[in-house]
Amino acid sequence: MPPRSLSVAAHFGELLQGRLGSDGPVALVTLPCPALRVTLTARSGGFALHQPDGRAIPLAEARRLFPHSARLTLRAPMPLGGGAGVSTAARVALLSLGGMTDPAELAAACHALEGATDPLMFPDPARLLWASRQGRVLAQLPPLPRFDIIGGFFGPPRRTDPADLHFSDISDLVAAWPAACASLPAIAQLASESARRCLALRGPAGDPTPELAARLGALGWTMAHTGSARGLIFAAGTVPDAALSDLRAAGFSTITRFGLGG
Fold first, then answer.
1. Chain Cα centroid distance, residue 57
2. How far apart, in Å, are the Cα atoms of 159 and each of 53, 56, 142?
3. In this structure, are 80 and 10 located in the same domain?
4. What confidence tier does 158 reach under pLDDT thresholds 50, 70, 90?
5. Beta-ladder partners of 253
6. How far apart are the C-alpha atoms of 97 and 21, rounded to whole Å?
7. How far is it, in rounded angstroms, from Cα 175 to Cα 150?
8. pLDDT (tens digit, 9 = 90+) per residue, 78-105?
9. Which of 6, 7, 2, 97 lies closest to 45 in space, CA to CA?
10. Between residues 205 and 31, which one has the greater pLDDT?
11. CATH code: domain of residue 162
């Protein structure tokens, strides 16, 4: 058979993530990242899985998700544990190439395997308030305004633990989000506050992202609340030339720039 290939867009942390009340579920609004994608290619042959960028999924699990004879190559040009959704995207790619296409079925399958999953299988994941530890949609959200993100990965990887519920209460931020979607400065402020609460509660200490955002004139900043992805939020077309060099100097890797919304 000729090679078949499928790619799944990653995400770049979250615009919001935390508890809905002190005893409520962990909920998030993901930050989709079309610039980073997990790509799965299938070629003729007996079952094999090549993961040149690191092991995103165990071989035995991949065989269960894709029960066909094929030589598979899984590419993920972002760090594992970076908060970019590599593990979810890899499973979505395997299931989708194997014939599962319904987003709700994909979400249920990924949640059963991971225990905490990202909503990458949905066509517009940033418009969902998502319960990651339950694998379900809590609410539909308005579309995002146009904006640009430049960011990268700072510090060591931090893999998601499905049993980890140690997050700040963001019920006030979630309540304000629908109205804020009409205004880029408003969503940047809410995203920054979610990230600030996360750093205050979970660390790491000395994260340079808030200072970089202020120095470069960003409207706000965002982060992977369990991971190393960090991003600066700018109005579309206004990322300053100095941003790339400043991020590199601060120790960011895999620097990525992309636009969303509008």
1. 17
2. 16, 11, 30
3. yes
4. confident
5. 153
6. 39
7. 27
8. 999 999 999 999 999 999 999 999 999 9
9. 2
10. 31
11. 3.30.70.890
Query: Could you list the residue range(s) of the whole structural domain that residue 79 is in?
Result: 4-140
Provide the pLDDT for residue 228. 97
What are 187's two structure tokens? 């969503």
Tally the domains of the chain: 2
CA–CA dist 199, 193 (Å, integer): 10
Q: Are residues 187 and 242 in the same domain?
A: yes
* 108 in the same domain as 92: yes
Q: Are the beta carbons of 256 and 35 closer than 8 angstroms? A: yes
Same domain, 8 and 134: yes
For 205, list phi and psi in degrees, rounded to 5.
-70, 150
Pinpoint the alpha helices (H) of the chain.
Answer: 59-65, 86-97, 103-114, 171-180, 184-202, 209-216, 242-249
pLDDT at 1: 58
Burial letters 141-151, b for 16+ CB under 10 A, else e: beebbebbbbb
- For 52-59, the CB contacts below 8 A with 24+ separation are 53/77, 54/79, 54/80, 55/80, 56/80, 56/86, 56/87, 56/90, 57/87, 57/90, 57/91, 57/94
List pLDDT tens digits, range 6-55: 999 999 999 999 999 989 999 999 999 999 999 999 999 999 999 999 99
130 lies in the same domain as 154:
no
Q: What DSSP letter does each residue of 88-142 carry, written as one string?
A: HHHHHHHHHHTT---HHHHHHHHHHHHSS---TTSSSGGGEEEETTTTEEEEE-P
CATH code, domain with 16: 3.30.230.10
Residues 71 and 153 placed together within one structural domain of the fold: no
